[in-house]
Amino acid sequence: PVGCRRVGPEIESLFAALGAAFPNERFAEWRQRLAGWWAPGARFGDAFAQQTVALLGARSPLMLDSMLPELKVAQRPHLARLIEARAEVEAAYQVAEERIVARGFELQVAPQRGASPLFLLRDGARRRIEWSGDAGFRLRGAPGGGPAEPVGELLALLERDASLVSPGVLARPAIQDAVLGTTLQIMGPGETAYLAQAAAVYPVLGVAAPWTALRPQVLVFDRRQREHLAELGAGLEELLFAPEAIAHRLAALAGGGFVSAAREDAERLLDGLRAPAIALDPTLEKPWTKTRDTLLGALAAFAAKVEAAAARRGGVAQQRFDHLRLATRPEGGLQERVISTAWFAGRYGEIFGAALLDQLTLDPGHLVLVDPIADRSPAAGPADPAGPERANIASPP
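and the corresponding structure tokens:
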């Protein structure tokens, strides 16, 4: 189980590489704190909790360790219920999955008939519990196989040590809500995607499912970055969703736009050939289409190479564009999915956590722009009563 795993000695080489890449004093101080939490031998959960509390301070959310013995004991009756009502649980999952598919959605978790949503910890390995007949169970992937064990023995193991049985992804939401009495959960798109399947076992446990809301979406984009973007004559929406348009403009300014202009002329010329060709012989449309696609595709590939060569000579403007694109859509993905919050704390210092909480809004329909340097100046006035800035960009689906 991840909760039992500890950080290995390889972490030290990663911190050494981080220090070489970012040697400035502020980052060095933060790196030392990170190295203290993420030291060899530390548990992942402990290190994450310490980092999060240090980052957010007194306003940090409460952190609950899923390996806490008291929490395991509180889960015991609900885990036992999922074992005892195993046929009802499987039927409930099947009904939910059929309903989801009938509505045109894909299942986030592949159906596993005959398998429980539970795991058993044995000999240091966490293995899926699979049902065998009406009163037996086996552990998936257990060495040696062997005959099925009685379900009564599984219930006895749970009674002796509640930490031995744990819920999988489809049982975990209902188990945690049964224990914590959740009223509202705020989750990301990835988590909400499988809740329609996970909701099937709430009635089996006699638990009311909580209300669910999407979490806020944040983009860290400071004032200096916005100024640099404005100097390029571009806006944030274009940078996020159509950066190639900015790249074309910069290439044209650097003398690399001549192929794109020629390609437009060629497209008009080729389009003008279609009508007289088809009038002469309707079967010529297919070869005309192939010729058009081949020529325009070749010109587009050549234009990309020319623009890349121009970009290498583009100077400061091109460098700033590259940095902005990397900061907002690193590796082509969402910033929050690629860049760790530990990076921002190292770059901006202790103000980052407070800036994030001060500027955060709970509207998931907009992208919230967080500027950690907005109030760094001692001469800065009071905060804008209108609240934090929001990008006028609808959230991606």
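(Above: one complete record from the training split.) The first strand starts at residue 115 and ends at 122.
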